[in-house]
């Protein structure tokens, strides 16, 4: 599929990880990128995960949670053995990851940030997360997502 490559898909290909790409027409008027992906692809929303960048003790980190919930900032800080967390400034998140908001993938980020994947991902055979562009999702096993990102698995959804 020409023209669809992203750093996330390049990483998956380089590592020879089994995955499936799913694309849909992104509607800029939709209020939630993640819920839009679930609706467009006909998926149970709890199986679609969003990638959120936060600051833990002043350093950027990533929380990967279902699109149906909020990121528990205290849980994220605890999972990374930090004290305090807050959502990152969007421009900082985009600069560090190399992706635009709404298309930030936990995979293939420009700067490798600490990642925490919500434990709910483990209940599914495969999960969906951004493949690095709005309108492009990657289906991958939770184990491969955790392995490729070096993630900690913890309860970080609120």
Automatic annotation (TrEMBL):
InterPro entries (alphabetical): Prolyl-tRNA_editing_YbaK/EbsC, YbaK/aa-tRNA-synt-asso_dom_sf, YbaK/aa-tRNA-synth-assoc-dom
Organism: Lentzea pudingi
EC supergroup of this enzyme: lyase
The enzyme's E.C. designation: 4.2.-.-
Entry protein name: Cys-tRNA(Pro)/Cys-tRNA(Cys) deacylase
Signal peptide: none
Record's keyword terms, sorted: Lyase, Protein biosynthesis
CDD domains the record matches: YbaK_deacylase
Highest taxon in the source lineage: Bacteria
Domain YbaK/aminoacyl-tRNA synthetase-associated: 36-148
Keyword Transit peptide (UniProt): no
Family: Belongs to the prolyl-tRNA editing family. YbaK/EbsC subfamily.
Record bears the keyword Metal-binding: no
């Amino acid at each position: 599929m020409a023209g669809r490559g992203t750093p996330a898909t390049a990483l998956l290909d380089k590592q020879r990880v089994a995955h499936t790409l799913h694309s849909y027409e992104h509607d800029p008027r939709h209020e939630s990128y993640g819920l839009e992906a679930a609706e467009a692809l006909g998926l149970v929303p709890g199986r679609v995960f969003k990638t959120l960048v936060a600051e833990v003790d002043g350093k950027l980190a990533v929380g990967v949670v279902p699109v149906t919930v909020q990121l528990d900032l205290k849980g994220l800080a605890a999972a990374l053995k930090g004290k305090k967390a807050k959502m990152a400034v969007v421009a900082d998140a985009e600069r560090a990851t190399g992706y635009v908001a709404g298309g930030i993938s936990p995979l293939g980020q420009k700067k490798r940030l600490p990642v925490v994947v919500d434990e709910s991902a483990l209940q599914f055979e495969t999960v969906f997360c951004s493949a690095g562009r709005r309108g492009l999702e990657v289906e991958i096993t939770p184990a491969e997502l955790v392995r490729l990102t070096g993630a900690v698995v913890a309860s970080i959804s609120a």
